[in-house]
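Researcher: I'd like a structural prediction for the single chain below. Treat it as a standalone chain; there are no partners to consider.
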Amino acid sequence: MKTNQQIKKTLLELLEEAIKRLYSYDRQLLYYKVSERCICSRLAFHLENIMRQKYDSDFQGYNADVEYDRKKGDPKCIDSSKKRHVCDLLIHRRGFNGPTDNLLALEMKVHNNFSKVQSDFKRLHDIVQYGNEHNQDYAHGTLLGVFLRIQEFKYKMRIFDVELNNGEPGKEIVVKI
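Model: Treating it as a single chain, here is the predicted structure.
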């Protein structure tokens, strides 16, 4: 059984490999400046392929879904306001909401889109916070949050990890492709 830290390390390796494949196979999408949702769906495609090819024993039963907004058939909400929670991409087990079912929540911005970055940060901060018996019906306790900015020749990432930085955004990582 892997520890949370080992799973997080594997998730980040998986994400980095999927991003490299995105740049390798789908760079035209970045060049043509297609929508965030289109690019995010291609990233999910690469994530699932790598999950099955290299990490099947670690991620058996998990999916990478774009804008998934359900919890056992009901809308995923952050709090009692019933405001829906929709991440751009989620690695999770569909239909489950236990402590190991939501592994990675990702918010993405593409090109030079700087709109709503702070609301994305807040959403990721909230989703990685631990739940308790009073808020178990809400979307909390996701193992890792990632804010990803994709540009034509580089990407930037910020990690949200409740164990490392209390769910606040970590230092920005910049990778040139």
